[in-house]
Hints:
TIM Barrel; nine-stranded mixed beta sheet; globular; alpha/beta
Amino acid sequence: MLNAELSGYYHDEARYPAAMVNVTNHCNLSCRHCFIFRDGNPNQAPLSIRDEMSDDVMLMTLEKLRDRHGIKSMMWMGGEPMLRHKLLKKGIQLFESNTITTNGTIPLIDFGPDLLYVISLDGPEDLNDSIRGEGVFRKVMKNLEALPVDFQSPFQVQCVVTRSNQSRLEELVLRLVDSSVRWMTFTFLVPAADGETNPDAWHNNKEREEAVRIVMALKEKYPGFVRNSTRSLELMFSPYAERVTAACPSRANILPLYLEGDHFTTPYCCYGNDVDCERCGAWAVFQIAAKMERNGAVSW
């Protein structure tokens, strides 16, 4: 039995090189820009994490989806996926490539050199903690600094760029560049489709371009540390950005699996059911777009 109700852009016969899976709807933080917990997304958590889909059923379902769609790469998400670290230990054996996206407040486990941790920090300490909670920045850094020298799983920090933190991104880079953190990536806030006008969201892509230029300057200044490709950032300028999002490359390349009760479901996109696609700033979308262009598959 396949514990999944798949619809939307999903196709039974499609090949998906990658997938992302929310393994739990429980989280120990409440970040103000978290897209998982927007209204309308499958994100209800039972009182106990033990009442979510069991490890065995989840792993069986993921294995069947892997075989059906040829999934090579899996991104493990939540909630906070490290709350189900025993599941992760088994799950990463199913796929050739694995990434765990975590808030970093729970100590990392060495799963070997073939797994990448992506740790979320959204600015220097005061800004990060205004978004993620008091004391979070120091707790994350303490966990990273406590890792043994022979820790094999590489890890990087990913920062969500917003109107609120765009002018202080280099402060975060300077804090991390000489630490044990190997790389940084920047992804840009993906706003909801309801036209939200909160302080974190740009009104349009033209207004966002200043933030993109800031990240491009950081890429030029710290080329070995900032992993965003220059071309992926260039594609975030108009009119390229609108062309990329209109033909969203993630739909054909990434299968999103959200946890809903005792089964998986496919939301509208990787960012859920309430997304303003035209203002999308997702790292994965523009990285895939740049790779497609480089391989001659498309010209934006």
